[in-house]
From TrEMBL:
InterPro entries: HD/PDEase_dom (IPR003607), HD_domain (IPR006674)
PANTHER family: HD_PDEASE DOMAIN-CONTAINING PROTEIN (PTHR33594:SF1), SUPERFAMILY HYDROLASE, PUTATIVE (AFU_ORTHOLOGUE AFUA_1G03035)-RELATED (PTHR33594)
Highest taxon of source: Bacteria
Name recorded for this polypeptide: Uncharacterized yedJ domain protein
UniProt xrefs under PROSITE patterns: HD
Matches recorded under Gene3D superfamilies: 1.10.3210.50
SMART domains: HDc (SM00471)
Domain HD: 72-177
Amino acid sequence: MIKNQLKDKPINNILIRTLQPIGAKRDGFMSQLRGPSFKTASGIPMNTVLTLWHPRLTALASAALDEDGAHDLNHLHRVWRNAAIMLDEHREADALVVMAASYLHDLVNLPKNHPERHLASRKAALLARTQLAQQGFPPEKLAGVSHAIETHSFSAALRPDTIEAKIVQDADRIDALGAVGLARLFYTAGRMGSSLAHDTDPMALHRELDDRAYALDHIENKLAKLPGKMQTEAGKALAQARLSLLTSFRDSFINEWAVSPATP
């Protein structure tokens, strides 16, 4: 049945585009997928399987999107592209499981200040498993996708046990760093009604960090810790490079921030 579906199906360009993050080897992951070792149990090339499932996964993800611009379809594309970098270093990982979890990890997306925020990834994992089963997703891969989705969340504080889950967790967290991460930070803070920074103590030298009240606090309270929590070496390298941009921005922000009224 599935062989007939895949027969003579052309490779679309959208998959290749989403696997080309800035700084990635142009043919690294894609050339590996075309190789003889990257085949499914049925002998079908993994690249062909990914091409078949990519539009289905984006359709499922798109149907669940709300008006949260920090968790839109482009965010999901970026997570998948980040994951591709790590797949290039972990050929033992199941690329289909990683792609499915990358696109469906936000099926249930609760606001950062929602009382059940820590349960969102578990709810998303259950929903993804149901929807994938209805789509005819390989049943032996459902548990892997579910685990990767459930453990990706920082709020859930769950440890990923599989290489696929580790890759997805890293890929999602990398998108919280760098220039895009900075934009997402202030976008989310605006939706929550947070202030930019504390009026007189923006660096929290004499107070507790509170990133629900002050956007700038989120850098120290969460984002600065992410490189040390990465599960893969590639993830650590990417995270550290992107954190440098955030800390540079923070320092510039502090220099420009008025901590007292201007004198005449």
